[in-house]
Amino acid sequence: MNSAITPNNKTSIRNKLRKISTINAAVILLLCWLLLTSTSLLFIKRYEKRNLELIATTLSTSLTAATVFEDSYDAHNKIALLGDQGMFASARLVTDENTVLVNWQDRQEPSGWYQDQLRRWIYVRPLSVPINHAENQVGTLTLAGTVNGAADFIRYSVLILSCGMVCVLVISFLISEFLHRGILVSLRNITSAIHYVIRTGDFSQRIPRNPTREFQLFSEDLNSLLSEMQTLKASLLRDNRSLAAKALEDPLTGLANRSAFIARLAQLLEQQHAPRGFVLLFLDGDRFKCINDSWGHAAGDEVLKAIAGRLLALTYPQDVVARLGGDEFAMLITSRTDQGELQQLIEDIHAAIAQPIHIAEEKPITTSVTIGYAWSQQGDSVASILERADMHMYKNKGIREERI
What we know:
Pathway: Purine metabolism; 3',5'-cyclic di-GMP biosynthesis
Organism: Candidatus Pantoea soli
Strand content: 5-15%
Largest sheet: 4 strands, antiparallel
Order of helices and strands: HHHEEHEEHHHEHHEEHEH
Helix content: 55-70%
CATH architecture of the largest domain: 2-Layer Sandwich
Transmembrane segments: 21-44, 153-175
Radius of gyration: 57 Å
Number of domains: 3
Distance between the termini: 91 Å
């Protein structure tokens, strides 16, 4: 069962690129190291064998007289002269009668596993060359090659190559970091834009142009998507505002509906500080049913629209005019601050509503309203002020009916 991958154990793309570059460079450099090391070893092997052959040929020529006369002293001196210079590790001079004239051994030749393996690899076996005189073999010279020079050469070559490869690996890593910077910047721009959109919900953010073709195509697609989302968000906001406005608006008259009226009333009560901050008016049509029965519902709707327009004409922007339903209207008046101004407004309302309402070519319609009001008081609730205004309106309606 696979364990879930959490953000803590995920690696970044920077680390991924570093890992890929490092592994790639390390593999290439390792192959180069193996190739150069192998070439160097083959070169030193060939060089040492060839050098030993030249030494043997030269030395065999100089030992001809000593071998013929079996002069071991002279032969030893000549062999020791070259051997002391590190030309070979050991030398053995034997006449054709198997008389050993010289058996020289370099006492300073290092011995160990590494040197023994290197010696067997380079020379395989000691080198034997004949010593000839007058076209006859008079003796045999056997030389065992030295590995002092080869061991030092191999040791320093491997060390230098290893140090060089490490330096190249470090330089390759730094160059990769520099070259990857453009990719990382491109990805950072893209992810920053996405995170900004997620964090703020603002779709106006755009990704800058990118010199890399694939990233540029991806940026263009993402910018197009952001533009579409921005347009969609703006459209949704407009629709929401429109729906919100319609939800608080009476569809026939365009006035505030009951919900908007109650919300504004509650807001005014919460903000009220003065004993008389505002006044609430209830308006109820007197003969609206008769108008519907006599002229039809279409005419009744036109009458309601006309009443709404006339009420709006008598108020200030800070006042609220609402249709509560049917022929019931309400007003929140904050522009009048005393009883005298209120009474003048009520008279103006009666006069405006009493004006004939002309509907097409029909006979002008006249109507009236009954008004009840209540001044706001400290400690008022929505229910209490509505109740006082309603009671005052029905009291006035009763008075008007008695007069009629």
